[in-house]
Amino acid sequence: MRKILVFLMLAMVGLALAFYINYQVQSGDTLYGISKGFGIPIPVILDWNPDISPSSLKVGQKLKIPFVPGIMYKPVRTLTLSTLAKIFFVDPEEILEVNPAIGNSVRAGKEVFVPLGKVNTSFTQLVDYIWPVYGSISSEFGWRIHPIYNKTMFHSGLDIKADNGSPVFAARSGVVKFAGWKSGYGNVIIIDHGNGIETYYAHLSKINVFVGLRVEKGDFIGRVGSTGTSTGPHLHFEVRVSSEPRDPVAYLPRNNTYVMRRVLSE
Ligand SMILES: [Zn+2]
């Protein structure tokens, strides 16, 4: 009996390790080169290796590189496979394909490997913008009573409630203009889409891009958090045109809005 248990535990450790390899940085390596060579997007590599500096890889440094684009995710509540798939904007089959041991539900606190959706799927090609995160709208754009300052203030974006650590995706293709800390916003990414259009992704727990990086619509860029002025994990998402905040709902696909709102009752 004990032998079987030890074997099972080893098998589980094996499974957990099987999602990535250790790669030792060689002289002349760049993050771009490694990303291209392994076919793993830079934000995914940065998520697996939070301590590396993108501009100065050190020879001999060990990097964790997943076999397929995907990240480790630790749900804060027990999720069905179908909800997990929605959070990653993939089909449950895509998760099962690379992680057959995942089962029909993932319990809270259990870290699992989840693949990231293929960019430019038929859905993302059809629309100009995609929803940056899967969750329910907790605060709309416009004038509101601020939840912390308790006075009427203009809310320059849309708040989408999502669990801590949930993946955040670029709503549109562009170039990262800012990635770091801003007062109020906490950890924030700003993507420049050209023609004066920018999108903001605020209160992140993790930023996996850097200034100058080109991202495509649907690319994983960071993780939901509650940094800055925030009452709980959510994504504060903004669309700005010539620096003026606009209502993001007007830009995001409506059919998905329905899906997003329905999640509330799940
Ligand atoms: Zn907000």
UniProtKB/TrEMBL annotation:
- Highest taxon listed in the record's lineage: Bacteria
Every copy of the LysM domain together lies at 21-65
Query: Which SUPFAM superfamilies does the record match to this protein?
Result: Duplicated hybrid motif, LysM domain
Checking Pfam families in the record gives: LysM (PF01476), Peptidase_M23 (PF01551)
> Which stretches are transmembrane?
none
Swiss-Prot/TrEMBL keywords: Signal
Q: Record keywords: Signal included?
A: yes
Indicate what this protein is called per its UniProt record: Metalloendopeptidase-like membrane protein
Give the source species: Fervidobacterium pennivorans (strain DSM 9078 / Ven5)
